[in-house]
Amino acid sequence: QVQLVESGGGLVQAGASLRLSCAASGRSFSNDAMGWFRQGPGKEREFVAAITWSGGSVSYADSVKGRFTISRDNSKNTVSLTMNSLKPTDTAVYYCAADTMPRRPIPSRRFGTYDYWGQGTQVTVSS
Question: How confident is the model at residue 1, as a pLDDT?
């Protein structure tokens, strides 16, 4: 059974940092691009960051560029999102996702590109 399990969310104050992790199981994701999306209260799910299978190309939403860093460890089948200088507007459920098109050269920012999704982890940033 293919699973993506996020962890690392929590309640923090503005300006703090968090590191989210996504552990993949059930198949190897080493050839897949991986992405992070989020859904805030009353909002649609939105793109946050994505990384190619090799880690050679990354993409960020403008709202998080310079504050968030996506990385992956293919030997452990994990992808991480390091979030610095958190703002109340970052409050959301964060989802990890896998794009199973093998070795896509540029990571997609489109929700519909991703085939597998985790259940999400809550991040709450207080002011």
Answer: 86
